[in-house]
Amino acid sequence: MTTQGSRDQARTAQLHRIAGRSHRNRQPEPATGTAEHGRWWTRLERSVSLLVSISTLVAAGTALVTVRQASGEQHLTRDGQVTDRYTAAVANLGDEAEEVRIGGLYALQRIAQDSPRDAPTVVQVISAYVRSHAPLPKKGTNGPQHPVNDVAAALAILVAPLTKDRNTHADLHGANLADAHLTFAHMNGAHLEGAHLKGADLRRADLRRADLRRADLHRAHLRYARLDGANLKGANLNGADLRYAHLNGADLRDADLSGAYLSSADLSGANLLDAHLLDAHLSSEDLSEDLFSDPTHLSGPNLHGANLIGANLIGVDLEGADLEGAHLDGADLEGADLELVNLLDALLNGADLSGANLHSAALESATLAGADLSGADLSDANLYAADLHGANLHGADLEGADLRHSRG
């Protein structure tokens, strides 16, 4: 019995050992093998993704190069087309037929509109065309009364304007533009020195900082024109209509303004040294019937701080004008109408005011040293704290004048 139990126990132990070996034989591969397999698969996936990314970048780069090449070819093609159009247009400017020349001018205008970078060149070409086709008449001869058709077309193109480039300006110096129609013209900074603009219609034109030295503007229409900072030195403005014009800071030295209409003009800060204003119309009473005239707002000109040293103002009508702080040393104002004029702090050293009408004029703190006021009407004038050292007051009417604290 004991022997049989021992044999059974031995058999059981053997079966356990066999079962254990069999279990060990059936266990999965070690964990290290599984991890290695996972890392290999991850590397494979990354490699594939990298290849896909590289392929995508290569494709995109190729497409970009293709687009740039196409764009470059288009630019070259467009530049070539512009060059061809420009060459053809310029060739037409030399044609004998007027209509062909005009067509060439409008073709250049279209080029400037389509290719802004070429606009400055077009401006210079058309400017040269105007100068060559509208030269000043030879001495003793008369030029055309109005610009001929092709010149008129060229002017219309130039003043449109053609370009927004602030450094590009029309150059029409020495051109004959008599009686040209240039209303609302954009000619800011234009070169017009020595140009013949007699009778030209420049109403509401923008001529700020324009060079108009020695220009002939005799009887030109400049009402409401913008001439701020313009150089009008030596210009002929005889009989010109400058009512409501803006001449702030303009250089009018030695300019001829005799007979000019300046009522309601803004000449503040303008330099009128040695300017000629004989018989100039500066009062609010100088009216005319025309489209732009507005008598209800007419007034004397604004000459605040203007430089009128040595100016010829004989007999000028400045009634109601603002000349506060103006420089009028040595100016000739003989017989001038200065009633109700504001001359506060004005400098009138050595000025000729003989026979002038200064009734109710404001001369407070004005400097009149050495001035000739003989026979002047100073009744009711305000001369408070005025400097009258050496002034000639012989025969002057000082009835009702305020001479308190005046010196001299």
Question: Would you tell me the overall average pLDDT?
Answer: 83
Taking Cα atoms only, what radius of gyration do you get, to the nearest Å? 45 Å
Q: End-to-end distance, in Å?
A: 165 Å
Strand content: under 5%
- The number of helical runs is 5
| Major β-sheet profile | none
Shape: elongated
Q: Residue share in helices?
A: 25-40%
Which residue ranges are poorly predicted, with pLDDT under 50 across at least 5 consecutive positions? 285-298
Structural class: mainly alpha
H-E order: HHHHH
- How many strands appear in the DSSP assignment? 0
Describe the 3D structure:
The chain is elongated and about 120 Å long. The longest helix is centred in the N-terminal third of the chain and has 62 residues, at 31-92. Helices cover 32% and strands 0% of the residues. The chain has a domain at 64-152. The chain is mainly alpha-helical.
List keywords for this structure.
mainly alpha
Short description:
With 408 residues, the chain is an all-alpha fold. The protein has helices at 2-26, 31-92, 98-114, 119-133, 149-158.
Describe the secondary structure blueprint for this structure.
Blueprint lengths: L1 H25 L4 H62 L5 H17 L4 H15 L15 H10 L250
